[in-house]
Specification:
By secondary structure, this protein is mainly α. 52% of the residues lie in helices and 10% in strands. The protein is built from 4 helices and 2 strands. It has a two-stranded parallel sheet with strand order 1-2. The longest helix is centred in the middle third of the chain and has 31 residues. The radius of gyration is 21 Å and the shape is elongated.
């Protein structure tokens, strides 16, 4: 049996059937666009806030590497004079740690998106900073 058309059980069965019908009728792209729009609209509601934060974290993680190549020289100049305690609001996944001079002795960060916390913790550990993810 074709693995794409294998039987699907449970609550995903109606969604799977809809996708197969749309693919058969050449409307899969339209369905995916409509679904993306529906998810976007859902994310603007209080119920969808968790989804929005998750999606933002995924997009941020995906785009960050390219951005860092562009921003690294500017960050190096901007952060060169930092010393003592640094308060960072919205540190994301902690990419600024790489630009902190050794004169930074204490870092306090507040990251409201819990989906960023694991990456932030790892970045802090690599830099020798503990307890970096606060909600």
């Amino acid at each position: 049996m074709d693995p794409v058309r294998r039987p699907v059980e449970g609550s995903v069965r109606p969604v799977f059937d809809l996708l197969i019908r749309a693919q058969d009728q050449g409307q899969l792209a339209l369905l995916l666009v409509a679904g993306s729009l529906a998810l976007l609209l859902l994310s603007l509601t209080p119920v969808g806030a968790g989804f929005r934060k998750w999606a933002m974290a995924r997009m941020h993680l995906a785009a960050q590497a390219k951005y860092e190549v562009y921003a690294a020289p500017r960050k190096a100049r901007l952060f060169a004079d930092l010393a003592g305690t640094v308060l960072e609001i919205g540190p994301g996944k902690g990419t600024n740690f790489d630009h902190h001079p050794d004169r930074v002795t204490r870092w306090i960060g507040i990251e409201p998106n819990r989906h960023m916390h694991e990456q932030l913790r790892r970045a802090g550990e690599r830099r020798g900073i503990e307890g970096v993810a606060l909600e």
